[in-house]
Amino acid sequence: MDAKKTNQVYTQSYVSIAANTLLFALKYYAGVVSGSIALVTDAWHTLSDSISSIVIIIGTRISVRPADEEHPFGHGRIQLVSSLMLGILLLSIGLSFLWASINKLQNHEIAHFGNWALYATLASIVVKELMAQYSFYLARQTQQMVLKADGWHHRSDAISSVILVVGIVAGKHWWWADGVLGIIMALFIFKAGYGILKEAVTPLLGEPPAKDTMQQVAQICTNLAGRNIYPHHFHYHNYGYHQELTFHIALPGKHTLAQTHLLADRIEIEIRKKLGMESTIHIDPIEEPETQADIMKHKDELSSK
Description:
Alpha-Beta Plaits; 2 domains; Alpha-lytic protease prodomain-like; mainly alpha
């Protein structure tokens, strides 16, 4: 990630820490003044967002370190680890809200909020949603999954504040409103946490290259070779800021080693230039006239050996 994008991540994290600390103070004061345990709890929930921002700062500082002997492909995957941590944090928050909501229903508890609680909660909704939108915007600009995770964390806090506002209004008429809405919110947070975890786990376990990536590679190969050389057997490795791609191409067996080596070098350079990936190419020799059937036959012969 370039210096500009790295600075954007740092800026978002510092703004998040400052805003969450101020919101924590406001909510906590409002909770104490109004005697609302729910608002005091939500204040600590807001403060937990600062922890996630600290995780982002540490993760980003580590991820931009250059490759070394112990990490030849760089440290970019620390961002995926950071996203895992935030995803787990979202799930734990959802679980806590679910448990608290069920307890409220079981105990027939009614939420009691004063004016300070309403003002603090409305302010939290606006500020946290603005912070969520800011995080989502930077995530699109920098392609950093951890920022998307942090955006969902901000939104989870905004959702909890919406639940509190609805509880203030509806709780005067239906004692169970706060508990039911809390369960709905918890399920939404679970869904967001699951999505973040899935996006982080998939690259760690391994994934195929995107279809458009394979199509672009095929076009590059055709343009440089002047013919269809049937790129196939793709393997993709994502290391955050460093991606590795290996695949096979098929060339006539009469080509010299120098010719095939030169073409492979040119393809690798073009892929690096246009796709930002490092590639390694294996050559499959075939006899003229080469066809897709010849390629598949050759692959079957190799796999049977």
